[in-house]
Amino acid sequence: MLYEIIGIARPGNLAEVKEIVLTAGQLILRNGGVIRDINNWGVFMLPTPVSRHQVRHTRGHYFALRYDAGVATHQTVRDTLAVDPRILRTAGVRLGDGKLETLSKFGKIPWKEFE
């Protein structure tokens, strides 16, 4: 199945975001998955302030990870990201119904540039 995870990490250190994505990517690849796309969206204001590990955050570093993997692998990636203290929030979704014709419609992860 094709999955997409959008994560929000603590802002300020790009190396931390790279480590988080590297860890998730290694989990996916080790379990027979395929990484389709990785996007670094940058630092943005959060819609509402988030308290995580006794620190209140108003900004977050957004990233998106799209991959093919099994249900168990997806759950492992979500669980791993959930316990990482550098992650503020994650959201994961399954894209399509698993059929090739449906999956071919999903291209690059879009990001709208504001003027």
Structural account:
The protein has 115 residues and is of the alpha+beta class. The chain has a single domain, classed as 2-Layer Sandwich (Alpha-Beta Plaits), CATH 3.30.70. Helix content is 30%, strand content 43%. It has a four-stranded antiparallel β-sheet with strand order 2-3-1-4, covered by helices on one side. A hairpin with a 2-residue loop joins strand 2 (34-52) and strand 3 (55-68).
**Overall outline:** globular
Low-confidence stretches: none
What is the count of β-strands?
4
Largest sheet: 4 strands, antiparallel
Q: Which whole number gives the mean pLDDT?
A: 86
Number of domains: 1
> What is the terminal-to-terminal distance?
35 Å
Question: Roughly how much helix do the residues carry, as a percent range?
Answer: 25-40%
CATH superfamily: Ribosomal protein S6/Translation elongation factor EF1B
Just name the CATH architecture. Answer: 2-Layer Sandwich
CATH-derived topology: Alpha-Beta Plaits
Structural class assignment: alpha+beta
Could you give the order of the helices and strands?
EHEEHEH
How big is the Rg? 14 Å
Pfam family, one: Ribosomal_S6
Subcellular location: Mitochondrion
Keywords: Mitochondrion, Ribonucleoprotein, Ribosomal protein
Protein name: Small ribosomal subunit protein bS6m
